[in-house]
């Protein structure tokens, strides 16, 4: 099942890339969010910045699904695939120099995301450009409530 998630993300990548490229070309800010957004578009210190959220606690993911979709009942296998795919995606993001944050505590998540987007790239002493990025690329996995 994880292989299927990875394949879907790869299949959708050209469409996401086209959307991001259009926004970069026109200087129009955008936030792209979704389970299948890959970190390859982000370049440390570039116009496209990213933050990936990863919940690694399978019990928390199950609880989130149950709260969000109570009619579906417990979704243990789905939660397991979500965590495994999230681990793969987080590893890809880290390899690309893209920050990976835990979504909890939820209360300060927005502040932590802004801080991560504005922080200098790993291995760089140059600060991020002032103000919001021209294009922000934010992926949030399916584990969020």
Distance between the termini: 22 Å
Structural class: alpha/beta
Q: Per the principal axes of the C-alpha atoms, what is the gross shape?
A: globular
Roughly how much helix do the residues carry, as a percent range?
40-55%
What would you report as the Rg, rounded to the nearest angstrom? 16 Å
Strand adjacency order, main sheet: 1-4-2-3
Beta percentage is 5-15%
Region (Disordered): 121-145
What does this structure look like?
This protein is of the alpha/beta class and 145 residues long. It has one domain (2-121, 130-140). Helices cover 46% and strands 11% of the residues. The chain contains 4 helices and 4 strands; from the N terminus they run H-E-E-H-H-E-H-E. The protein has helices spanning 2-26, 58-68, 76-95, 109-118; strands at residues 31-32, 48-53, 100-101, 135-140. Strands 1-4-2-3 form a 4-stranded parallel β-sheet, with helices on both faces. Helix 1 (2-26) crosses helix 3 and helix 2 (58-68) crosses helix 3. The protein is globular, with a radius of gyration of 16 Å. It starts with a helix and ends in a 5-residue tail after the last strand.
What key attributes describe this structure?
145 residues; alpha/beta; 11% strand; disordered C terminus
What's the topology here?
Blueprint: H1 2-26, E1 31-32, E2 48-53, H2 58-68, H3 76-95, E3 100-101, H4 109-118, E4 135-140
Parallel strand pairs: 1-4, 2-3, 2-4
Helix pairs in contact: 1-3, 2-3
């Amino acid at each position: 099942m994880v292989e299927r998630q990875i394949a879907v993300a790869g299949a959708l990548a050209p469409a996401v890339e086209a959307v991001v490229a259009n926004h970069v070309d026109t200087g129009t800010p955008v936030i792209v969010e979704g389970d299948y957004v890959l970190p390859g578009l982000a370049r440390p210190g570039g116009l496209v910045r990213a933050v990936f959220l990863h919940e690694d606690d399978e019990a928390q993911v199950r609880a989130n699904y149950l709260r969000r979709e109570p009619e579906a009942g417990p979704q243990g296998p789905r939660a397991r695939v979500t965590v495994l795919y999230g681990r793969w995606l987080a590893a890809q993001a880290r390899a690309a120099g893209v920050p990976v944050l835990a979504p909890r505590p939820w209360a300060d998540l927005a502040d932590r995301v802004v801080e991560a987007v504005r922080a200098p790239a790993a291995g760089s002493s140059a600060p991020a450009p002032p103000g919001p990025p021209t294009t922000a690329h934010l992926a949030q996995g399916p584990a969020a409530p």
